[in-house]
Amino acid sequence: QVQLVESGGGLVQAGDSLRLSCAASGRSFSSYAMGWFRQAPGKEREFVAAIRWSGGSTSQADSVKGRLTISKDNAKNTVYLQMNNLKPEDTAVYYCAAAATLSRTSVPTTPARYHYWGQGTQVTVSS
To answer: Mean pLDDT of all residues in the chain?
Structure first.
């Protein structure tokens, strides 16, 4: 049974940093891409960043480039989202997701491409 468990969310002030973690278990993810999405109240779920488990190809939303960085630790089967210089508009529930992919270079960026999802972790940034 595939499980994705997020952790690391919380309440912070603008300008602070957080690191979210996503522990993945239940299968081999070698042919998968791991993504982070977020959803603010009243808004659609949006892509934040993704990384291919093998090879490490990444993609990030333009809105977070330079502030939010995705990485992984293969030995721990864990994906991270380092978030720096947080802004109030980053407030959302952040979800980790996994998508099977045949591509060796690109990663999917739409929610519909992702098969497995975590429960989400709340990030609140106060001004």
So the answer is: 95
